[in-house]
Amino acid sequence: MAHIEEPQLQKQEEEHLDVLTKSGQKTGVSKPRGHVHRDGDYHRAVHVWIFAESTQQLLLQRRALCKDSWPDLWDISSAGHISAGDSSLETARRELEEELGVTLPKDAFELIFVFLQECVINDGKYINNEYNDVYLVTTIDPIPLEAFTLQEAEVSAVKYISYGEYKLLLAKGDSEYVPYDVDGQYGQLFDIIEKRYNENTVARSLSLQKQLSRYAPISLSAELTGLTDSDKDTLAYVVKAAMVMDEIFYLQSWYSNPVLRDWLKEHAGTSELNKLKWSYYLINKSPWSCLDEDEAFLTTADSAIRLLSEENGKVNNWRGLEYRAAFPMSKPPGANFYPPDMDKMEFEIWKDSLKKDQQKEATGFFTVIKRHSESILNSHPHGNKTSATHDLYIVPYSEEYKALLTKAADLLHKAGNTTNSPSLKRLLHSKADAFLSNDYYDSDIAWMELDSKLDVTIGPYETYEDKLFGYKATFEAYIGIRDDEATAQLKLFGDNLKLLEENLPMDSAYKSKDVNAAPIRVIQLIYNAGDVKGPQTLAFNLPNDERIVNDRGTSMVMLKNVSEAKFKHILLPIAAACVAVEQQEFVDFESFFTHTICHECCHGIGPHTITLPDGQKSTVRLELKEFHSALEEAKADIVGLWALRFLISQDLLSESLLKSMYVSFLAGCFRSVRFGLEEAHGKGQALQFNWLYEKGAFILHSDNKVSVDFSKIEGAVESLSREILTIQAKGDKEAAGLLLQKYSVMTEPLKIALKTLENVQVPVDVAPTFPIANEILH
């Protein structure tokens, strides 16, 4: 029998709830709970369901007789209003602890859907217009009933019932149970459980095999003959430091991601299905598939089992509460940089309350945002709510990932002590210092000035994972051997960056007077780690720190062996399937590689730091927020194409490139759109293809193949370049959103091309292995 708590003697002041609009947005007004239900105001609540895997049962609670809605009826395991200023997840945790006496960490809670309940009861006196965040807690076995401590004012009893039986009782409207429409929105709860635990193993294995087959396995190697013995010792330390970037990135993706990874690895050998799960997880580095618009290919039912032994003292001979470490089916837009239940409005209100320097930190690359209430709940489960005016606070990366960054810094210092290259020595020591100080300025300058046969990029750089704002940087590492011959050939682009900026197709008022030539290094990649999931990078242009971009420009690294592998395994087969036969001869590696170089160069030109209409200084990234990444990728691509044409017109590049660069670009459009329209590169590429198609520069033929109209392509490329550059220069977020909304869509020609490529089974990307690094590590 469950324990019953004594009722509280003192009646607390009535809680206030945030009033929402009908579409679920906060109005900024809060009212007492009674008034909200009297007036029918929209508000928020949480539903928490406890599900036992082994018995396929849901836990129900019997509502106390004194409740003002549905008294004495069987209902959700635990539920409650989200009080004004409180967050969803912390409310779910607190309600479970208060009503049932069960204290669970945040990784036990899976947000499965949001349910809008609109009903009127108690003869019209209680109007319930409620947005409910529905959470599922998956335990392995039922929790013993005597382990619960019930809050008498809320709950009179608890029981387990099979989910199938419960669904039938709801369907027939049994008067003992609070009604839910199982044929409507709430049916999702039962559908999710049904799908997870009654799956066809063979069908799922085939599905994973199909997903895996989109990646062509390749082995990436390079000649080490140019490396000295000390370089090889340095390489060993750097590869080990790069592996630490992996550890941090797993954590940045989602808080239960590291335990999921360890669990999948441990069980990979137990069945063919588990082996496939592990193989596909290794490519995506999370349970969400990069090539399927971040759709989950795993569920919480596949996740790690964790034991809460501290709960076992409640019941004799019970080893404790075992639960699945949860993750949501939809990839969280804020990854693990922000609280999972934080919305944009909450962040903006909090940010506006900060001083200027703190605002800079809040939106900076190298901080995470946390909740006071979560810290309090973790350290004092039975404690009071936070008394802070705002629940959010800033934590620098150097503190958040301290143990891992200390380990990486130690390895980089050892590497720095081993190398004979002065510039590499400076980079490694300064990067190690940056890991612990959280100030990356000096180490980024050292990276730009690197002049070493062993080429190392390591640290927090790209912001694609932060789909909420595009503020936060993920950790990554690229280690390669410099290709001196190819590097010498590329000096042309860096030398002409200023000339390109002066001639950009946009109003001269927006052009930058200070453009620094981007040094370009070509490497043969021998190892990568961290944020290198899914489709592999061909090149990168860093740093992203606007202070350095303004002071010194950027530097570029080209991964030549990755480019060659993609051209051979992907671009040539795509061209054969989708490009008009008479133009296929124009698809060549030189054009593909040259445009990739130009793409990266063009990240360094165009608007970065801008002046807004009111005279305020800002940056494109801060103004365009979540639209920045996709638009910046589209800019680099289309302006890159414009730049190649311009350099040809100045006799700086050969006229022979002209047709081949446009046709190779067309084939490349189909390659990138296959990454999915959730990903910045795919979204940016769809925008370009659809614009050029609309302007008649690309033509779809009756045989479903596409060709370039050489008489129209130049004007179409210039008009789109002008459109994007002007939006960036003005910091016009509304225009950016409208442009992407109109053109970043799967139009008919793109659908036809993707279908063709699926039928002929051209790989979407490559999955590299690194024999040199593996040899070093073993």
Protein architecture, described:
The structure is a single chain. With 778 residues, the protein is an alpha+beta fold. Among the domains are: 16-197, Nucleoside Triphosphate Pyrophosphohydrolase (Alpha-Beta Complex), CATH 3.90.79; 568-765, no CATH class. The protein is built from 29 helices and 28 strands. Helix 7 (257-267) runs antiparallel to helix 8, helix 14 (422-437) runs antiparallel to helix 15 (441-448) and helix 23 (628-649) packs across helix 26. The longest helix is centred in the first third of the chain and has 25 residues, at 229-253. It is globular. The model is unreliable at 1-11 (pLDDT under 50).
Summarize the structure.
With about 775 residues, this protein is of the alpha+beta class.
Q: What is the fold's blueprint, element by element?
A:
Blueprint: E1 3-5, E2 16-20, E3 26-32, H1 33-39, E4 42-52, E5 57-63, E6 74-75, E7 78-81, H2 88-100, E8 109-121, E9 126-139, E10 149-151, E11 155-162, H3 163-171, H4 187-197, H5 201-212, E12 215-219, H6 229-253, H7 257-267, H8 272-284, E13 288-289, E14 295-296, E15 305-308, E16 321-324, H9 344-352, H10 356-362, E17 367-371, H11 372-379, E18 392-396, H12 397-400, H13 402-418, H14 422-437, H15 441-448, E19 454-460, E20 475-482, H16 484-489, H17 491-495, H18 497-502, E21 520-530, E22 539-542, H19 546-552, E23 555-559, H20 560-578, H21 589-603, E24 609-611, E25 617-619, H22 620-624, H23 628-649, H24 657-673, H25 680-694, E26 698-700, E27 706-708, H26 713-730, H27 733-743, H28 748-760, E28 765-769, H29 771-777
Parallel strand pairs: 1-10, 4-9, 12-28, 21-23
Antiparallel strand pairs: 2-3, 4-5, 4-7, 5-6, 5-11, 8-9, 13-14, 15-16, 17-18, 19-20, 20-21, 22-23, 24-25, 26-27
Helix pairs in contact: 5-8, 6-13, 7-8, 13-14, 14-15, 20-24, 21-23, 21-24, 23-24, 23-25, 23-26, 24-25, 25-27
